[in-house]
Specification:
Elements: H1 2-47, H2 55-78
């Protein structure tokens, strides 16, 4: 009878330990996924922080700056 009770206790301890190990692995995995998504978000935020670095916007900005410089030079020469 005592042997059966000890087996039941050992089985219960093993089940609790296995459950703890499994839940711990799940928590570690969730933390890694969260960290991965945060890093991905930060990188994306860094790359898109300056809107003028996109191709069309850069060309448009260069044209606008060129026109503005031409206009300033012309007004300086007229003065």
């Amino acid at each position: 009878m005592e042997k059966l009770e000890n087996q039941r206790k050992d089985f219960g301890k093993k089940a609790l330990n296995d459950n703890f190990v499994m839940s711990n692995e799940m928590m570690k995995r969730e933390k890694e996924l969260k960290r991965h998504h945060e890093n991905k978000f930060k990188k994306n935020e860094k790359y898109t922080f300056f809107p003028f670095v996109n191709g069309e916007m850069v060309e448009e900005g260069r044209k606008h700056l060129g026109n503005q410089l031409k206009h300033d030079l012309q007004s300086y020469m007229d003065y």
